[in-house]
Structures are given as C-alpha cells and as structure tokens.
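Two quick folds needed for the group meeting slides. Do the first one here.
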Amino acid sequence: MEQLYDKGDICNLEREELRDLLESLHDRFNCEDFIEADPISVPHSFSGAEDREVAGLLAATIAWGNRKAIVKSAHRMMRYMDNAPYDFVVNASERELATLQSYVHRTFNGEDFKDFVRGMRHIITHWGSLGGYFESHYDKMRDMRSVLSAFRRDFHAAEHNAHSEKHLSSIDKGAACKRLCMYLRWMVRYDNRGVDFGLWRKIPMSALYIPLDIHTGRMGRELGLLRRKQSDWRAVEELTSSLRCFNADDPVRYDYSLFGVGITGLL
C-alpha cells in the first residue's frame, strides 16, 4: 500500500496538515468495509439493541492479540449462547451456564465466561440494560472516568471468581481500559458510516476516551500527539486531549485514523 508520508516528514507536519491527515485516514477506515475483520462484526451480527450491547461487551472483553482469532472466538461465544446473547444472560439456568465451562480464549476461560454472564445479569437486573447503566451513571457523574470506575465495582458485585477480575481493567489502578473504551465507542458514537452503533445517545461523543492499544499508541507518538511512553490511563488522557484539539465534539473518531494506519502501515 502506498505510503502517504515519509517517516522523517511526519513530525514536521503543521497543525492543519495533521488535521487533514487525520480526517483523510478517518474517511478511509470509518466505513462498512472495516466491520468484517474487526471484533465489532460480532455485535453487528445482531439486529436488536440489547443483543448488540451484550455481544459487544463480550467481544470487546476478549479483544487483545490477533484480530482474526478474536473475531473467530467471539463468534464462538455467541454460539455457546445459542446466538441469543441477551436472552441467555437474563434467563440461562445454572445447568445452561455450566455449558460455558469448556470455552477458552487465551486466558479468558469458561469460569470467566460464566462470571461475565452473572455480572451482566446483575447490571441488567438493577439498571434495566447495559445501556441503562452507562447512561444513568453518566447523567449523574458527567465524567466517563467515574463511570468506568463505578461499572467495574458494580459488575463485580455479582458472584464471581477472582480470576475474572483481570478481564475488566481498573481505571483506579491506572489501566488504559482499552477494551472498555472501545466498547463505549461502539455503543455511543454515531454518524452515517454504518460502523459504530450510536445506541446510547444520552452520552455525548465528546465524553469518550481513545481506546489505546499498541497501534494507536505507536501512531500517536509518531505523529507527536502522545509523549508519554507508558500506555496507561495518563497516556489515554494525553492522547485524547490532543485529539480534542482537532474535534472537541468527537475526538474518538480518530481511533479509526490511528488504528487503521497502525495495522496497515500506510504511513
């Protein structure tokens, strides 16, 4: 694929050039062609909002490592739930939960799977839906950082084994919370591109934080948008703040720019 800039030229880009580059990359990657190879394809396989919320959280939870393997494993999760994820979360008996025991994706095992079903059931029982939880808590707190902290605490209020806690990152411990930030992008962002769902309209897109992974971090540093070397929550805040300078209302649109170019080597 043809490169847009030589490596040596990237750091010399003026502000307007950088904005144009980010927008150009956004336009290239934020399109329906992006869906099939990405974990977001899993919630896209359902039409109902509640199924998409549940499928999205599970797909995001195992989204580390090889994308092809992630997508394959996440679709397998849905088959374990009879391709009716919301109904399974709400109504599965203990006998049905036991069928999840054989599932494994890297360090996410069957016990973790059961605990995540129990955690989602707890949230849905008390707040009506996953979206209801996030929207109501954002309405009270007006700060997504506080919402992320509360969600992890309330999610683990359900019976669970300690091992499953590692699969829901702790912002209170300084984690980048990449998978939760990605899930929120899926559920909150809306445009006419057909990728993100825009289900949770009570949360403004301006409140979102960039999902920081190896690709977005590397490209953020190469473009001079991120100086912090560690990929932790402080880096998330720094990179998101830089991106807000280009679009304060929708900074996370540039996740497509940084991630897309990171995996394709376009720059």
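Then this one, please, same format:
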Amino acid sequence: MRTAPPSLTDRIIEHARALGFDAVGIASAAGLGQDDRALTRWLAEGRHGGMAYMAREPHRRSRPQEVLPGAKSVVVLAMNYAPADPERGAARRAPTPKTMGRISRYAWGKDYHAVIENRLSQLEAFIRDAAGAGTGCRSYVDHGPILEKAFARNAGIGFIGKNTLLITEEFGSWVFLSVILTTLELPPGPAQTSQCGSCRLCLDACPTGALIAPYQLDATRCISYLTVENKGGIPDDFKSKLNGWVFGCDICQEVCPYNAHPKPTRVKEFHSDHGAGSRLDLERVMALDSDEAFRAAFRDTPLLRPKRAGLQRNAKALLENRKEFP
C-alpha cells in the first residue's frame, strides 16, 4: 500500500484550483453500500427510462476498485458554471415569447466535457508526476461508471439535496463534477449530510412531478430527461408541461434557496456568448433541414446531444402548445 505524504494532498488541491476547479475534495474509494442499494432499487423500478447505460454493470458505479484495480482514493472536483446573468430586472421578469424556448443554464456556453477534460488530464498528469512511477489514475467527466455525487458528498464538496443534485455552500448546485480515481491513499475529507431541512420548494415546483419524494427522481417524468436523453417521443401528458424548456430544465434549481445568489463562473467558455445562450428560436430549429446544418448551428455546444430529431421534437411540442412562460 502506498501512502501519500500529507503535503501531496495540498499540492493536488492547489494545482486543481490553479487549473480552474472551484472546489476539490478527497473521498475514500471504499464501496458505497447505501448508494449502491438505492441505485439498484431505482433501476429495478425503471426510473432510468431509456438510459440503458445506467443499467450496464451498475455495481461498478459504487465500487471504484472495479473500474481501476487498486484504487484507494477519489479526487472529486467541482467547477462553477453559473454565467453572469444577462437578464436582470424587468428583462428577467418578462415572459419568454411563444416562439422561443428556454435552455438549461449548463448549456448556455460551450460543451463542458471538452472544457473540463482538458484540465482534468493536466491534473491527472500532475498527480502521476508528483507521486512517482506506478501511480494509477483514471479520470471521468460524468460519462464514466462512477457515482460522482455520492463521492462528492463523501469528499465534503457538498450535500445531496431533495432534488437529487449536489449542492455546495458557495456555488449552490450550479457545478459540474468530475473525478480522478487513483491508487494513492489520500486522507479523505469529512462527508456532508443533507441541509435541506423541512424545505420542499423543489418538489412542489416540478411541473411534471418528477421528484416523486425527497431525494427520489423519476427520470421518465423529468423535463431534462424528456428533452435531452429521451430517444423517443414526449408523452402527450407532458407536452403541455414543458414550461417553455426546449433543452433541459432548471426549475428545481432556480427555486432552491442555495441558488438564490449565484456567483458568476470564472470559465469564459461557459458564458452565453460562447454558445447558444439562454433561449432558442424554435422556428429556426424547425427550419434546420439537414444534420449538417444542425451540427453547424450548434457546434461545440451541449445542444448536439439530442441530435436534430430530438431538438426538433422538443421545438415542435412547444410550438404546438404555445404559451408564454416567465
């Protein structure tokens, strides 16, 4: 067993912050029994919908040693993505026009995967160089078989709220999470427990009832799932409940008291002028007549995820249920 000197943890944290990560914590790579059982129940109930990848070897997500043999620690990183809000005052309170669709805040700028992966690979290289030959590392930005939120909680980055999102004290839930699994044994931080108290604003605000109970999400009812990960049609019962969202949804985050005063991100690529911005012209989306035109319109942004068919499906549902939303 290789035990890292205490100073190495400080050097890793310092280097991570220099690379633009806003919060860094260490969690033990020991298995997550309670979270593993919760995931098993969630999958058995079909709450994951069409996200078949969630059901592939699900136990690996709570057992880093099955992903990286010999893993001892998980370096958890959070990056604030809240852009400077361009819609303050009266402009913010104005309704969204019927021909415009709202975009989830995480997708206003460039695709976060490319932005974070570059910095994550630099941090991984730093850890290998600093710790010496033979140090094993493997990094992921939300696409690997790892329960990032659970390890972030155990690392002391934040707590998991009733909306099932990780909430940090400084940045609320407006953060992207990434991890580096390593064979180094680093001292873990203190785990955080929920600080939601009796608040249930997120549950009451969800227009589709996706938050079926505190800390329980039915993805098949979630607007974010329906407009992004969903490969099929949007059920008729939900088309009138999209509340103007053409890509993703922020309702359960917007009502959360921890998100009341977001700090603008330091990462310029997440600003709205580097991507699609906060709203999308639905008629423009419907006018895209080829996959090439679609890719050109949304190159390097998260809006490529549902493909042209998915984004046009969303736009069509909103146009057929024309309403103004605040």
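Slide caption for protein two: The two ends are 56 Å apart (CA to CA).
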